[in-house]
Amino acid sequence: MTVIKLRPYRREDAENLVRYANNPGVTRGVRDSFPSPYTSADAQVWIAQCLEEPAASRQLNRAITLADELIGGIGVIPNGDVFRYSAEVGYWLGEPFWGQGYASDALRQITALAFAQTDLHRLYAGVFAFNQASMRVLEKAGYHREAIHQSAVYKEGQFWDEHLFVKFRG
User: Fold this and answer.
1) Residue-averaged pLDDT of the chain
2) Per-domain residue ranges of the chain
């Protein structure tokens, strides 16, 4: 039985969103566009954006929940033009919940949802070279390493390789 569940964000998620996202351990593994420090205003803006997504959207943003309380976030962001059947998957999990299989479970769930509700053919995630735990999450969820983009990421004052993981429909 699945312990964690994915659901749309709610306004009342703001407190937990700030509690778990405002953590250097979390922000280290995500893009610099993820706010740090993560404030209540950031949470309100993010939740409002998610609530405004049209029902027919191919973009999927979900709260990762345990006992219906937000513990992280996960999303699928479709590409355009000739890449329109591909989408990037991104996720983060509050530090108290690391190492319990929740991120892999959430990734399996959002992958199934994306392939069931959209016409996407390919999902991918880019992982910074220092984030071995995230690479394990992807592998446990059935993704495989497709490429390594050398020195593609600039984070924490230095260049890092980006490891690209993919999963195809079917």
Assistant:
1) 96
2) 4-124
